[in-house]
Write a structure and sequence with these properties.
Elements lengths: L2 E5 L4 H12 L3 E6 L3 H13 L4 E5 L5 H10 L3 E6 L14 H29 L2 E8 L1 H4 L5 H21 L4 E8 L12 H9 L9 H13 L7 E4 L6
Parallel strand pairs: 1-2, 1-4, 2-3, 4-5, 5-6, 6-7
Helix pairs in contact: 1-8, 3-4, 4-6
């Protein structure tokens, strides 16, 4: 049985990814940092689908916690680096502590989890990693310098790891998300949403389920590596 590990699986895109893989017959391991009730709901939903479930409370920016989590995961074939935090702040008002927190979760966390997963994949002889980034990592977002920088780091990390790990049968890809309907985007007012969608070719938000389907497609497409797939409703056009 193949197992997928999804970071940040207690809600939003992470939960949708967990359920997408469960429906495809995978066992699912996931971690969360603070949202215990959300994690319980994810585990319940996965159990109702008949999947084997492991839930870990793990801060992905903590090296020791990450190593302990990976020691307990068996049959790992796919890692989805989804855990992330956002910060909406003008650059001159962003503290060094805030900058470091965003980078530690979004970039350091992906590095720590990838490093731990690769050690398992090398023994297995294969593996697949999907990093969840953002179009702001490509284009930059005003008042989101820390978040944009962290997501840009994920894109560069994806490409470097894809080149390095391909000879070992390990693929690494990235999903670059636009406006997805999750709690992270709940802070936008209705007027702000309308203004954003007015200039978007598909004129709507994406769904967590659409993101999850794209993640699984990247994870399972055996002749694709180093790809940055945009799920953005045409924002880049």
């Amino acid at each position: 049985m193949s197992c997928v590990l999804v970071t940040g699986g207690s809600r939003g895109i992470g939960r949708a990814v967990c359920l997408e893989f469960a429906r495809a017959g995978y066992d699912v391991a996931f971690c969360y940092s603070k949202d215990a009730s959300g994690a319980e709901e994810t585990a319940r939903l996965l159990g109702s689908l008949g999947a084997g479930v492991q839930a870990f409370r793990c801060d992905v920016s903590d090296e020791k916690q990450v190593e302990e989590m990976f020691e307990s995961v068996l049959g790992l074939s796919v890692l989805v680096n989804n855990a992330g935090v956002a910060l909406y702040r003008q650059v001159q008002d962003t503290s060094l502590g805030e900058w470091r927190r965003v980078m530690s979760v979004n970039a350091d966390g992906a590095f720590l989890c990838t490093r731990a997963a690769v050690r398992k994949f090398l023994k297995r002889g294969s593996g697949s990693i999907v990093n969840v980034s953002s179009i702001w990592g490509e284009a930059g977002g005003a008042c989101e310098s820390a978040y944009s920088a962290s997501k840009a780091a994920l894109i560069g990390f994806t490409k470097a790891c894809a080149k390095e790990l391909a000879p070992s049968g390990i693929r690494v890809n990235c999903l670059s998300c636009g406006f997805i309907e999750t709690g992270m985007n709940a802070r936008f007012s209705e007027d702000e949403r309308k203004e954003f969608f007015k200039n978007l070719p598909l004129a709507r938000a994406g769904t967590a389920q659409e993101a999850a389907a794209a993640v699984r497609w990247l994870a399972e497409s055996r002749y694709i590596t180093g790809e940055i797939l945009r799920l953005d409703g045409g924002a880049a056009l």
